[in-house]
């Protein structure tokens, strides 16, 4: 019977039980997304994310889940990519192999938010691309936008401010645009 089910699964293109392919995500690093790397998302990370988002009771709790998801996905990526060397901002890690600037962080966060949306885990928000600011005509900065679907309030997911492994900031877009820095 098992052989018949396996054969049937192969014939109709379904994965056989126990042979599900690992999910992957591509992230970038090395300032300006100069380098990219693909990594497997661990099954326990997937299970944890699914459970965490299912438990999110409202938009505020879902934003906290987004923060946790970004950290978890970065942790999985750091098993293969040198991003674990990233330091807050740009000046401290100018020569580090895994360094990330705001372009890297925002692009990665957009990819992560899109990933969460593809899994239908975001019930109160939708990814809204990359946003930028230059509050003092210089000091250009960008982040990933997240729109709360009920209120249309936009938030920014921004991990650039912190060393690798920290939860990213998630702040209202209008606050972030004025030069938010923790």
Short description:
The protein is α+β, with helices and mostly antiparallel strands. Helices cover 36% and strands 22% of the residues.
Going by helix content, strand content and strand pairing, the class is alpha+beta
How many domains in all? 1
Q: What level of helicity do the residues show?
A: 25-40%
Main sheet summary: 4 strands, antiparallel
Please tell me what the overall shape is.
globular
Overall pLDDT level:
87
Q: Give me the Rg, rounded.
A: 18 Å
Strand content: 15-25%
How does this structure look, described?
- With 182 residues, the chain is an alpha+beta fold.
- The chain is 36% helix and 22% strand.
- It has five helices and six strands.
- A hairpin with a 5-residue loop joins strand 1 and strand 2.
- Helix 2 runs antiparallel to helix 3.
- The radius of gyration is 18 Å and the shape is globular.
- The termini are far apart.
- The model is unreliable at 1-20 (pLDDT under 50).
- Residues 1-21 form the signal peptide.
- It comes from Gulbenkiania indica.
- This is Transglutaminase-like superfamily.
List the helices and strands and how they pair.
Layout: H1 2-12, E1 23-29, E2 35-41, H2 43-55, H3 59-77, H4 102-118, E3 125-133, E4 141-148, E5 154-158, E6 169-172, H5 173-177
Antiparallel strand pairs: 1-2, 3-4, 4-5, 5-6
């Amino acid at each position: 019977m098992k052989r018949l089910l396996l054969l049937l699964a192969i014939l109709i293109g379904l994965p056989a039980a126990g042979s599900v392919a690992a999910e992957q995500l591509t992230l970038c690093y090395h300032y300006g997304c100069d380098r990219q790397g693909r990594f497997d998302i661990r099954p326990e990370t997937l299970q944890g994310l699914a459970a965490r988002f299912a438990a999110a009771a409202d938009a505020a709790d879902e934003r906290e889940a987004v923060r946790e998801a970004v950290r978890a996905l970065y942790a999985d990526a750091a098993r293969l990519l040198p991003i674990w060397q990233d330091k807050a901002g740009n000046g401290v890690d100018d020569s580090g192999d895994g360094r990330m600037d705001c372009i890297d962080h925002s692009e990665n966060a957009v990819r992560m938010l899109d990933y969460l949306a593809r899994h239908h885990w975001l019930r109160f928000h939708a990814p809204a691309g990359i946003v930028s600011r230059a509050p003092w005509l210089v000091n250009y900065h960008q982040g990933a936008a997240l729109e709360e679907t009920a209120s249309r309030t936009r938030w920014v997911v921004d991990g650039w401010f912190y060393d690798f492994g920290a939860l990213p900031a998630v702040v209202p877009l209008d606050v972030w645009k004025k030069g938010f820095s923790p």
